[in-house]
Amino acid sequence: MKKLVLLLLLCAFSLPLLAQRKPNFNTIDRKAGLYNNAYKKTYSASFTYGVLVFHGDLSGKTENQSTTKNITINKQINAGLSLSAKASFGELYGQGDIYNSYNNFTTNNVFSNSFLATSIMVKKQVNRTKESNSKVFKVNVAAGVGAISSEVNLYPDHLSARNRNINKKKPYTHLVLDFEYFFTPHIGLIIASELSYCFTDEIDLHGVRIGPKTLTKMDLFTGYTAGICIKLE
Predict the structure, then answer these.
(1) Residue 11 phi/psi, 5° resolution?
(2) Is 184 a domain residue?
(3) Which residues span the domain enclosing 182?
(4) Side-chain-side CA neighbours of residue 38 (13 Å)
(5) Which pTM does this prediction carry?
(6) Cα-based angle 137, 138, 141 (whole degrees, multiple of 5)
């Protein structure tokens, strides 16, 4: 009988100790699981610089190179999918032959465009990586919409003064294909190819006029950029 009482007392004192150890064990497991989770929610950013190629009415090459500087912030929302906010500061240049308002054919009409473009995109990683690796290579595609504001200067060859216009926020779509290589857990390199399709013909400030009719087409430009990317956890 005494042995039974001692056994019951031992069990009674052991239960609270087991109850205290179990939450601690579960807590450690949960933390380890979050740390090793390949799809944990993180922020990342990239800073890139590159060249642009304009496609529009005045898309001829000039002595000046079209360029862009970009800042992008990404918020991962699930496995391989993130939301991106992007701001671009750039200069577009081009020249071409047009009919002016007097129905006269003119050549070597040159324009310059200083713009600010902002966009919101959905970004998808298309290859598989292991987050535990110290070196990670990612291939991403992104698509979104935004607005572009610009100041355009057109220098017609038949006028001594320039034509100047400020374009307030015009909508555009943005497509990006990029390659990221993280050589440390937090720092990497990125190269990208971009396409921006503008829902306006005012990027170069001129449509093509043939007789009394103006043939307008939407302006677009492509970009090729490179820079650094960082991961914030």
Answers:
(1) -65, -40
(2) yes
(3) 41-232
(4) 11
(5) 0.72
(6) 160
Give pLDDT tens digits for 76-121: 888 789 999 999 999 999 988 766 555 556 667 788 999 999 999 9
Residue 10 domain-assigned?
A: no
Residue 68 in this model has a pLDDT that exceeds 50: yes
| Nearest CA-CA partner of 120 in 154, 84, 87 | 84
3-state helix, strand, coil in the chain (%, to 5): 15, 60, 25
- pLDDT > 90: what percent of the chain? 42
Residue with tokens 């009919």: 99
**Count of domains for the chain:** 1
Contacts of 11 (CB under 8 A, 6+ apart): none
Within 8 A by CB and 6+ apart from 20, the residues are none
pLDDT at position 111 is 87
Hey, what amino acid is at 134? S
Burial of 143 (0-12, 13-18, 19+ CB in 10 A): middle
pLDDT for 149-208, tens place per residue? 999 888 776 555 667 778 778 999 999 999 999 998 889 999 999 999 998 888 887 654
Contacts of 119 (CB under 8 A, 6+ apart): 85, 86, 88, 144, 145, 146, 147, 172, 174
Local structure of 14: helix, strand or coil: helix
CATH number for the domain that contains residue 204: 2.40.160.20
